[in-house]
C-alpha cells in the first residue's frame, strides 16, 4: 500500500542523502518526492510517497526519520502548515 509522509526539515547540505538512506536501509522505494522551501529559508518541507507492507513498517520509517538530527516533524498524509 502507498503511504504519504510530509516532513519538515532544516535545510542543510546532505539532508536529502541521509533521508533517502533511511528508506534504502529499510529496503523501501520512493515513488514520489517533492521538496518545497518554507517561508523561513532555513526550513523545507519534503513530501514523499513510498510503498509500505503494513502499519508496523510505516511506524519504523517514521521512527527512523525522527532520529535524524535535521528532521523536525513527520506527518501522515496531506497536512497543512
From TrEMBL:
What molecular function does GO assign, one term? lyase activity
The family database entries (Pfam families) matched by this protein are listed as: ACT
Q: Where is the ACT domain?
A: 4-79
The entry's keywords: Lyase
Keyword Lyase in record:
yes
Q: Does the keyword rRNA-binding apply?
A: no
The record ties this protein, via InterPro entries, to:
ACT-like_dom_sf, ACT_dom
User: What Gene3D superfamilies would the database entry show?
Assistant: 3.30.70.260
Its EC number is: 4.1.3.18
- UniProt name for this protein: Acetohydroxyacid synthase, small subunit
Starting at the broadest rank, the lineage of the source organism is: Bacteria, Bacillati, Bacillota, Bacilli, Lactobacillales
State which gene encodes it.
ilvN
